[in-house]
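Pipeline run #58 for the internal structure catalog. This entry was flagged by the ingest filter as a single-chain record with no existing model, so it goes straight to prediction. Upstream metadata was stripped on purpose; only the residue string is passed forward. Reviewer on rotation: M.T. Logging verbosity set to normal.
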Amino acid sequence: MSYENSLEFAQRMDADDPLRSYRDQFHIPKINGREAYYFVGNSLGLQPKSARSFVEQELSDWENYAVEGHFKGAERPWMYYHKFLKESLAKLVGAKPMEVVSMNQLTVNLHLLMVSFYRPTEGRYKIIAESGAFPSDQYMFESQIKHHGLNPDEVLIELKPREGENNLRTEDILSAISEAGDQLAVVFLSGVQYYTGQFFDIPTITKAGHEAGAYVGWDLAHAMGNLPLHLHDWGVDFATWCSYKYLNSGPGNVSGIFVHERFAHDKSIPRFAGWWGHNEDTRFQMTKGFDPMPGADGWQVSNVNVLSSAAHLASLEIFDEVGMEALREKSLKLTGYMEFLIQELSGDDDIFEVLTPSDPTQRGCQLSIFFHQNGRALFDELTEKGVLADWREPNVIRVAPVPLYNSFEDVYQFVHILKTALTP
């Protein structure tokens, strides 16, 4: 679409935005008494105003029923709480409800899933990942490989962009998969690369990994709630995500997993078992012999954290109402507008460059701006002037215009403040 660099244009876009009312459903922090321009939803989403009532409902049930709240909860008995999130999560990742479950934290789930899907043999033992993956992934790879008595330097194939480029080419990922061939055990990448904001071609990469005989999994921490996903149809073997970024469930809140239906009834798959993953029909008989629940539920270890899940459910209800397709439609316009303004500001001065792909199909709502000098000082000045963004070493400011609560005027004002900060 055709953009204009003016406050009037931004305000017209907001007036015509069918999702504009959802901003009022979130608490927006203030800096110096004024609403901040908040672009850190890729790190911590804003609090839905409804979250308080959801949590207070469970506090009330705890007060009134105590242990009987597991079965007598006024609205949602705690015994079944993880089930109340399934339909919403399934829609967000493009899955069947039995393929998803809310549980643990992301790094815990990374390890639990790799126990099941990374089973190296003498001939097939290598893992493909992107270089510079988020530390959760890096440390998981290192420890999982060592757990099997192997050397990470000999096992892990870390893919880097070509010289002079910022992002991985799909063709280079496919070439690496082909080259690894029969030695390849697992392909595991980020759905959206946290530093650059690149959205990988999940279906194409998954297909290639399967053709090589490997399992293919995804860390969706920066993709979940950001982009439409179709994990079941894409044939993804397994995935995990966190809920506190785009899903707005609160700091450090619960993660979730996806395990494809084709593994649903395979009880031979090794896993670290826990009592909540055991067949719920016989769970309380407390007998020996782990009998996993069908589907993703069979990977559960512990019973659900009800208070944190209540906040998670509050946000998921908003996603159910809006839908990812509508969010993606606005996101394309909103992020496109930010890119337009930033590119116009950069001109030929070479003060900064955008690392995130310019192709909208290869990104979500994050833009990563690399500053060639004085990046940290500039970031601090932006914060003082009411912009909440995200600093990442080295020299990158990540900004994420989230379609649920960010406006076109937010974007305009951010770039206007950035321009002022860059002016000598």
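catalog note: The chain has 14 helices and 17 strands.
catalog note: The chain has two domains: 7-42+323-422, 55-320.
status: ready for reviewer M.T.
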